[in-house]
Amino acid sequence: MDSDTGPHVIPQVVRRHRLATRLWHWVNAVAVLILLGSGLGISNAHPRLYWGRYGANFDHAWAQLPRFPAWITIPANYNLAISRRWHLFFAIVLGFGLLAFMIASLLNRHFARDLRVRRTELRPRHLLADLRRHLALRFHDPDSPRDYNLFQKLSYVAILFLALPLAIFTGIALSPAMNAAWPWLLEVFGGRQSARSIHFIAAVAIGLFTVVHLALVILAGVGNEMRSMITGRWRVPAE
Amino acid sequence: MIARRSLLTGGAGLLLAGCDRVVQNPTARRILFAGEDMQRGLQRALSDRAALAPEFRPDQMSPIFRANGTHNPGTPEYAALAQNNFADWRLAVGGLVDTPRRFTLAQLRTMPARTQITRHDCVEGWSAIGQWTGPLLGTVLKAAGVRRSARYVVFHCADLFGGIPYYESIDMVDAFHSQTILAWGMNGHMLDVAHGAPLRLRVERQLGYKHAKYLMRIDAVASLDGIGLGKGGYWEDHVDYDWYAGI
Q: Which residue ranges does the record assign to the Cytochrome b561 bacterial/Ni-hydrogenase domain (chain A) (predicted)?
């Protein structure tokens, strides 16, 4: 019920997310979750990270990761082969899903309309005001409730154009067959073990984004936010 | 509200637990395992099948090239062969060939050899760069007159895993690739036991478990059916590793 009107307040409902955005959001949510879970399973096979072109047990590792517990890995019990099956299947879902979403978002002007950062928004005064509003848990400008605030824009731009593509391309760089096909890609990252390290760092960034994203969804009101991501209809919170 | 909240956060855990059940369903398993075919199809569409794996300079080599898998086959047969430096060892080449052959190590060493410094990528995630020397697998297959009907090359090894002889297979494109060699030399010396003496496969562009060590017999075949459990290799048969080990 979007229009349960009280005597004083008439809630304003806006159409917030386009179909392409909603579809991709949920496909991607499943893909990211499975990729993170199976990725931690794969990490358990050799939980050391190196820089450069090679790296094995006797070489200097810049990080020795913990063993990730069964409740967070896919599958729960250590099985490198099955972790890889999940990971490599959903890597394709993630990669082509992101590509389709990006094309759709260019065509339906989602990027241009919602994610474009305007120069005035980057001024310190604006940044500070935005930060203050965030700390007060007011995430929406009552005058233009559909607009994303600056922090939203920056985090979505960072995840869409940096973290996810980085995870995808470092993933491709881990493939020995693709190293033969696209040797330049490996050079961009400085070798296979560097690519593997960056792959892990990108995954951590995506994981952190997901945690903050979920926390903000809860703070902003799970019901309203969930509905807007399922049906597109979002109720503007009363100020 | 509370219910929705716990639904949201609990959903993640539920999904992860659900994944384990999904793999037990034969249809879901088939779909999931089709990821291998998709990766292979995509990668082969994007790449030249003759493309070369990166090669490295001597100063880029790993200071220590760790050995893994079997460090020593440990069977009496292998011990006897190693005892006199593999003078009695023979590499049998058969299957779909015109003239089945048995090569001595000395014969293989007199064949034109290729030396390459390549990166070995273990399925677990580590890599090591080493130098390998040996004849092209293609040269050996041609010497036996491999037939056109052959689609795969199967490698039978001296080492056992859980009592089962290790084996692996590759297709003819990889078999005749210009970096696919039967290495008898490593890092400037004869291949040692830990790294697969007297002869191992180097099939660059694929993961480590494809690079069969302790080679005893090579068969050209039309199909992988009936060899082991039919999936083309020890790990493929017993632990669900993919046969296409390009990623």
A: 16-232
Q: Which helix (H) or strand (E) holds B114?
A: strand B114-121
Which residue do the tokens 């990623």 mark?
A: B247
Q: A86-95 burial string, b = 16+ CB within 10 Å, else e?
A: bbbbbbebbb
User: How many Cα atoms sit within 13 Å of B209 on the Cβ side?
Assistant: 24
DSSP-based helix, strand, coil % in chain A, nearest 5 = 65, 5, 30
Among A residues 171-200, those touching chain B with beta carbons less than 8 Å apart:
174-183, 186, 192-193, 196
Domains of chain B in sequence order:
4-239 (3.90.420.10)
Which mean pLDDT values do the consecutive 10-residue runs of chain A (239 residues) have? 51 87 97 98 98 97 97 95 97 98 96 89 87 83 80 93 98 97 96 98 98 93 92 85
Question: How far is the alpha carbon of A109 from chain B, nearest alpha carbon, in Å?
Answer: 30
Q: Cα–Cα distance between B78 and B99 in angstroms, integer?
A: 26
Name which of B38, B129, B239 is nearest A53 (Cβ-Cβ): B129
Picking from B20, B119, B206, the nearest residue to A54 by CB comes out as B119
Whose tokens are 């909240």? That residue is B5
Record the tokens describing residue A101, joined without a space.
């979403």
Judge: A179–B53 Cβ closer than 8 Å, yes or no: yes
H/E stretch holding B134 reads strand B127-134
Between residues 204 and 233 of chain B, which touch chain A (CB distance below 8 Å)?
204-207
ipTM over 0.95: no
Cα nearest neighbour of A182 on chain B: B47
In sequence order, the 6+-apart residues with CB closer than 8 A to the CB of A236 are A11, A12, A13, A14, A140, A142, A145
The interface residues of chain B toward chain A in range 141-200, judged by CB-CB distance below 8 A, are: none
**pLDDT of B163-220, one tens digit each?**
999 999 999 999 999 999 999 999 999 999 999 999 999 999 999 999 999 999 999 9
B residues 22-61 lying closer than 8 A (beta carbon) to A? 23, 31-36, 38-39, 42-43, 46-48, 51-54, 56, 60-61
In order of their start, the domains of chain A are: 13-235 (1.20.950.20)
Q: If residue B201 lies in a helix (H) or strand (E), which one and from where to where?
A: strand B200-202
User: Touching check for B20 and chain A: CB below 8 Å?
Assistant: yes
CB atoms within 10 A of CB B137: 24
| Burial grade of B72 (CB within 10 A; 0-12, 13-18, 19 or more) | middle
